[in-house]
Specification:
Blueprint: H1 3-42, H2 47-82, H3 84-88
Helix pairs in contact: 1-2
Family: Belongs to the FliQ/MopD/SpaQ family.
Keywords: Bacterial flagellum, Cell membrane, Cell projection, Cilium, Flagellum, Membrane, Transmembrane, Transmembrane helix
Membrane topology: Multi-pass membrane protein
Length: 89
Amino acid sequence: MTPTTVIALGRDAIEIVLMVSAPPLLCALVVGLVLSIFQAATQINEMTLTFVPKVMAMFVTLLIAGPWMLTTITDYIRRLYASIPGLIG
């Protein structure tokens, strides 16, 4: 196993992690931004006003994007397991 192979495996793993974590994080970012603008406009400073909608939006995002996320991770693991003989020898 060469250093180039190790770097390629690490890069692929980081890409998969970023792809899978992007939908819920982007959803939370957008919801948080909208709620912050709403709070600034109305001067309502309630912590539950930001927490509950973010959790609900992330839950809906996970329901919608969950199958894609699971398929992406499963495909990566299958490719990784299939490449083990080539990595060792």
